[in-house]
Amino acid sequence: MTTTETFNLLEPYEVAEETFVIPWALEAPPVGHFPMNSMVIRGAEPVLVDTGAPAVRPQWLEAAWSVVDPLDVRWVFLTHDDRDHAGNLLPVLAACPNATLLTTWFSIGRMADEWETPLNRCRFVNEGDTVDVGDRTLVAMRPPLFDNPTTRGLFDSKTNVLWSVDTFATNVPTPMPDIAELSADEFRDGQFFGGRLVSPWAAWLDSQKFQAVVDDIQRLDADVIAGCHSPVLRGPRIAEAFDLLRQLPDIPPWREFTQADLDAWMAAAEGSVPPEQPRPSDT
Question: Where is the Metallo-beta-lactamase domain (predicted)?
Fold first, then answer.
């Protein structure tokens, strides 16, 4: 297993047989860092799961192609159209001429304000749909928590890996490959913080209906849970994460940072923050 000592951002690491996470993270003062991951399944018909953020486009593409030759990629599973998931979609499609984009009708429409997705290369995948990718079957499902209505998670029935997208999001004190490295308190607080951050509507949920959704996902019996905004979950932490998830509807909403917080941060940082630079003229 990859350890913190051997872990570097944008260096893929194997989380299951032929399955690799491409890790990235954003500094998120004052709560530490937020993971920003994607995944590659290097099987008979290789699959990219999300396409990373445009902020690190060259490094992300280099990392992905270190795992798989882009000419071998057959599928690009886009969980949803947010920039941290779809930010490098067009360069990926250009580099992977043999790939089909697994997406949704609504995602195509939501991306149309920025680019035209080639429909002839798309296949719509809705909740419960399966995709045969040669040596395994992938199952699409809506995860319990999400911040975008088009979201679809992914379960690989061969390796029992669940890509949970934004469910189980957590802040971490420093980027790390495995959530077992968090203390029990850090793990609990991170699950409650991340869950309420990405899905503030959790406080409005009917608890009984939500439990049924969580039960359906837990019954997949995943051995590994990877996601965009969390280190990898394994072993006892999986059951713990589901237990914490079930509590979200009964927890008060997270109190968002206010202008007073920003004023205090700026005062504390006075003299160390460079003034905003003017943008280069377009003319």
Answer: 35-229
Q: 267 with 260: CB under 8 angstroms?
A: no
Write down how long the chain is. 283
Render pLDDT for 1-13 as a digit per residue (tens, 0 to 9). 787 778 899 999 9
Closest CA to 61 of 32, 19, 37, 95: 95
Q: What are phi and psi of 72, to 5 degrees?
A: -90, -15
Mean pLDDT over the full length of the chain? 94
- For residue 235, give both structure tokens: 């072993």
The residue extents of the domains of the chain are 8-251
Q: How far is Cα 141 from Cα 29, in angstroms, rounded to an integer?
A: 32
What's the whole-model pTM score? 0.93
269's CB contacts (< 8 A; 6+ apart) are none
In the chain the beta strands, taken as DSSP E runs, fall at: 13-16, 19-22, 25-27, 33-35, 38-41, 47-49, 75-77, 100-103, 122-124, 130-132, 137-141, 153-156, 161-163, 224-227, 230-234
CATH code, 8-251? 3.60.15.10
